[in-house]
Amino acid sequence: MLMLCPPVCLSRPDWDELRSEEERNVFVVSLAFADLVVAFYPYPLVLYAIFHDGWSLGDTQCKVSGFLMGLSVIGSIFNITGIAINRYCYICQNFSYDRLYSYRNTLLLVALIWLLTVLAIVPNFFVGSLQYDPRVYSCTFAQTVSATYTITVVVVHFFVPIAVVTFCYLQIWIMVIQVRRKVKSEVRPRIKPSDLRNFITMFVVFVLFAICWAPLNFIGLAVAVNPEEVAPHIPEWLFVVSYFMAYFNSCLNAIIYGLLNQNFRREYKRIVMSVWKPQLFFQETSRGGTEGIQIKLSPGLNNNERNKGETL
């Protein structure tokens, strides 16, 4: 009698890698959601404002648009921070990883990230900092409303996460260098080629985020320190370029995944081909399902060969 094998039939390293990939994907999906938030609501309203040369949708729509923009921005940086901590624990603190990052705990951590994101945006409604800015045709965070609040936003929402992510990735780079130099240590590092590729992908995501958002945050910090003197001397073109460069970052992550991750490239190709030839999509889906069954059966068969006396 054929007995199907549960996931425990996988070897321990393979099962750990599969579970780590699932947990990492939860963070990636969360980051992708943060990037998509602005595309579904605020960006269409920005286009509407551009075509009508001003905002004509009312104060409520302005507040909602500004709130969702903030949700996307802060959600992105918090998720990037969560990914960096996850990779640091997996590569540099592997003994604590299994205890901290079960699938349930990962979902709870993602939920915590979004809860903190919402809580970080709520004070804007009390300060009155979500306003329409005609320079960028957007309802966004107004840097000149409150100097103290602007400094707090820049420090808590940008510099602190950047510092945490930088620390995590520096520790990972040190570990990678030690492994490549074959430095002996008491704790055996588990760095596979796939781990290194995924780490490089997320490191590039972080670097581009920092590059895209640094100019706008530095402008905000400079304006907050001395609003009356600095704000009038900020060239409009500089603010506009830094603003759109910051929000263009939401479009970059999908490109980075496609360039650096083979799985994403394969899926992108499949999606493009399905648009031109839908029948190929259904054929690949059917073939993929069949291959998936075979993959699930093969570990079970190997296990049965090792334990013939235990199966009927």
From TrEMBL:
This is Uncharacterized protein. It comes from Chaenocephalus aceratus. The lineage of its organism: Eukaryota, Metazoa, Chordata, Craniata, Vertebrata.
